[in-house]
Prior knowledge:
The protein is α/β, with parallel strands linked by helices and about 650 residues long. The protein contains 22 helices and eleven strands.
Amino acid sequence: MTSTSLVDEFEHYSSWRDALYVRVEALRDWLDTQELGDAESETRLGQLLGRLQEDTLNVAFVAEFSRGKSELINAIFFSDYRQRVLPSSAGRTTMCPTELYYSPLRGPSLRLLPIETKTQPGSLADFKLDAAAWTEFPLNLDSADDMSATLMRLADTQRVDAATAEAYGLIDPEDEETARHLAHDGHIEIPRWRHALINFPHPLLKQGLVILDTPGLNAIGTEPELTLSMLPNAHAVLFLLAADTGVTKSDIEIWHHHIAPVGGTSRARLAVLNKIDGLWDELKTQAEIDAEIARQAASSAALLDLPINQIYPVSAQKALVAKVRGDAALLAKSRLPELEAALTLELIPCKQALVSESSQLVIEDVVVKTTELLETRLSAIQDQVDELEGLRGKNRGVIQGMMTKANEDKQQFERGLQQFNALRNVFASQVDILRGHLGMPALKVEVSRVRQAMEKSYFSAGLREAMGYFFRQVDGNLNASSAVIKDIRAMMDAMYQKFSDEHGLAAVSPPGYSLSKYRKEMVRLERIFDERFNTTFKMLTVGQRQLTTRFFETLASKVVQVFELANSETEAWLKATISPMETQIREHKTQLKRRLESVSRIHAATETLDDRIAELEATLGTVSDQLDNLARINTRITDALADDRDEMRRVKTA
Ligand SMILES: Nc1nc2c(ncn2[C@@H]2O[C@H](COP(=O)(O)OP(=O)(O)OP(=O)(O)O)[C@@H](O)[C@H]2O)c(=O)[nH]1
Ligand SMILES: [Mg+2]
């Protein structure tokens, strides 16, 4: 893979995803036309298709100000525009977190959320849904100068008095650093905007890439959404250091508080040592320069506690110049290609594996369920054919006996049906208990309890206690829910076994399910809270109290989100648990009814026997064709999932 670029690899990923989409869609449409899909499969396939269509790949650039984040984004993604797309200059430039993405639903534009929204209720996610909250500037793609002028607004600032800045949670007046920035008149320069969204029709953005550019530590620390969801949700985080400043105290702080803890093993994190061109001393030999770069990379690695091969020395600025001028030697010297190759390698295969795995789960469930249904149908019809074959030439007495037998089977099954209805009642009451523990009302009670406790507690100890209690209660609810889920599974397992033994239904084993990933997510949120608490909330000044409240609100909305996910997944699981049995019972009932009908028809006129057998055999043919088709569609999806690169290449060159 050494020679493939990020662009190629991303394009490959997108076409893999598109091919998968088409094949999953084919499965859904086929189930629909054959009238084989039930509501549950339809919903799950619909959700999967939605996910594949809206799939994004998020890459975040994080560092202290002026390390060259915006320049690196320009160099990696926007060199084709032959100029700087994002503003990059000495000192603080990007003043607010900036997301670059593409949506065809609106024209190319820069949308900015005013900083004043910090004192209004609602998290960033809420504001994203409220179009009126944003100030919009169209981007004129035909004029590079117009576009750069518009994007310069990312650097807008304004002067406010200390009280206002404190109300926005941007400063802590007790802090020495702040005191130095406050002018004699007690004013301070703050960002004009809180967040920026750039809708830009770049080929990679069109395929679902989302780039997040951030300003330095101050902004990261004051926007809880960044810490709680945007950085943890990024598929890759690039952390920048600069060779001219070396590793400073605040670099280390950003690394330890905002990047290292959210890392996890499944996410790519790359540390970049930028501005190595500062070390290109013309009086030194290339070997001496390389040794100096290696020395700086090694000391950065030691300070961040990373192996040295995870530090990528580059010159973003020279790389941009080299790409704009088509200067291959300079590009190689900038070492950007090594970083791009590492990003490509860490980012895309990892993301592809995630998408592949989750798609596979859904497809397998749907295909297995449908296959079981068709096999049950096939064997029921085959039984009828055998029965009728045996009848040829037999007398009416025998046929009478068959009538009786079919009637008996039907009655026995009706008794089974009563048991099934009783089971449904138990199931429903178990589900009620589960919803009591896991449902949103229970969570809302806990959230408002903490809110009250927070209003009352003027000391950080009280606050911590309230939060600790909150997390324990929430975990208790998840724990109780897990116990009910276990009971439901055991009960359904037994019932499936019973129906399979007594009525010959296919022995389905209900899908496994556990809430453990949600419990893990809660542990992660609690850890972020603890960390935040230890660094920021020890002293509760007025500004800090507001910051605390806002932090809690964002945390609470995150917990609500986790619960919403847990609820929808649980509801889907409940459906998946009971619905195969409902489907099979419905099917079994139909087959019994048909059998009874056919026997009584024969009873009425034994001469129609041959016709009836022919009819059933035709149906047998249809069902086994359906089985073949389903297997074929499934193979096509499995092939798409496997992403055979050699195969794709052969197809391309052929
Ligand atoms: N010499 C040199 N200068 C660079 C390099 N990369 C960026 N710079 C310069 O460093 C300054 C800061 O770069 P930006 O891209 O604005 O940095 P940033 O990290 O986005 O900074 P903020 O937006 O303020 O958070 C600019 O003047 C860039 O031209 C590099 O590789 N070499
Ligand atoms: Mg910047």
